[in-house]
Amino acid sequence: MALFLVVHLPFGLLEKKAALISCYSPHSWAPGLCGRPSFSLGPSQSSSFNPCRREQPRAQPHVAEVVAPISIEDFRRDAFQAQRPLLIRRPSSKPSTSSPSTNRQNDANTPTSTLTSPTILPALTKWFNTSPTPGKASLTPYLDNFRSTILPYELSFPNSTQVSDFISWLQQSSSSPASSSDLHLDSDSGSDTQSRLALAHLLKTYITHHSSSSSEFLILDLPLHLLLLAHQYNTSLSSSQFPPRPPLTSLYIAQVPLSHLPSPLRSDLPTPLLVSHADRGDIYSSSIWLGLQPTYTPWHRDPNPNLFCQLCGTKVLRLMAPKRGEALFRGVMASLAVAAGSGKIRGEEMMKGKERRLLEGAVWGGDGEGADEMMCEVTVQAGDMLFMPLGWWHSVKSVGEEGGINGSVNWWFR
What we know:
This protein is α+β, with helices and mostly antiparallel strands and 414 residues long. Helix content is 28%, strand content 24%. It contains twelve helices and 18 strands. Strands 4-5-16-13-18-11-10-8-9 form a nine-stranded mixed β-sheet. It has a four-stranded antiparallel β-sheet with strand order 12-17-14-15. A hairpin with an 8-residue loop joins strand 6 (128-129) and strand 7. The radius of gyration is 22 Å and the shape is globular. The model is unreliable at 1-58, 94-113 and 177-187 (pLDDT under 50).
């Protein structure tokens, strides 16, 4: 409770003044409920949105939401230049594959370039098989073509029983071939057996070598094949004998630049028009996030505006405006009696130990109420996009069955 008071009290009056001032912006802003600005997406949208409307005194504020497509002009004016978060939902019905706006989504010289496409990135269907059952998506055999690609992983609690069971499974070279519901890996071939044994050895070596320095969090560079096999392992557990074994979790290819991916996989993630046309078109960086649930990204801010796109599964993000978010971060650092950094880097220290526990508790604790009444919460599903302005603080968690696949991609731009 003391931490929340430190975070909240210094900015109470400032927030009220800022809200009144922002009501008279020359853009599409107008005084809204509770003295807060309403969010309008221009003449092409029939509805107005209030990103932080509070119907009751302590209800959480909300991020503005629209359904794709949205014009680049509206996005530029009402989100990018206004520096307000915006959730862009995937249309409920799939567009025709012959639609001009879909086929020419990256052609800036066509008349359709003023609108985004419905944001169907090829990776959504080429990398993942969807399922009518929530949280049951799977990886496609297509990704096995790139199994040798070396990528950095994060692994939480590497000394857990789940990790030990997975390593033992890898070492069983005489195990039965994968069922038809699994990835079509060549599990009965000599080459695949050697690959499984090599991965088991490397994973075990990593854990043994770093066991004294970290029992909570490990970073390792291994092939994409590791994730493919981990997904196959988790899928195979559904038919295990009683009592069921817990799945492998928290194996995460996190914040990996798209430039590290093979060319065909990069082509599956074309830059959205909102990134290339909203401002100067400069892409600071872009990253893929792919792993086994639960996944977690700690409280931080980005050095550039961020367009976050969900590819598979569901994630929840909590966001806060720059000054309030920084106050929360510095409050936690002060309670640790350590100097507060910039909060701009996904540091290893944020992923383990007391710093992780306190940051996570400050942001996510309180039965969904958040650490502050000005905390915004957004849920993104496959095909959704979330724009986060420069300097907005946020933390991200996956939602769904443990061990399930979750994937995202994002672009930092200006």
